Amino acid sequence: MLWYSDSEISRWLNQNLAVKQFIKFCLIGGFNTFVDLGVYVFFTRVLHWWWLAAAVMAFMFAATCSFLLNKYWTFKVNHNKLSTEYFKFILVASGGLFWTLFLMYIFIDYFGWYDILAKVVTIIIVMNWNFWLQKYWTFKI
What we know:
This protein is mainly alpha-helical and about 140 residues long. Helix content is about 80%, strand content about 0%.
């Protein structure tokens, strides 16, 4: 038996599945931030690709990694709709990328916010948007 299996936190998380899934979703997002950065650095510094091409490839690689981890660990979906789910996941992730760029542009260029503040607020908004769409549309839980 695991040391945390009988804890109050564990029992509470098991009773609140959406919170548990959201925490896992955030952990995977943090991990994939490093994946994205690592792939970007590899393509730009080792292979000497143009930064925009490297950014697209890094995004696709990290999004694919995120898809697989969220499908099998966060939402535990095991049915055979892989291509449909992957398409939906990439569509939501691409929408998240669009919202990130759009909101940062608005917050920084129109409201004059400090870029780090704009990034943090944008992450909170887009992360929630991504989670709920992935949960109820992509993986239909």
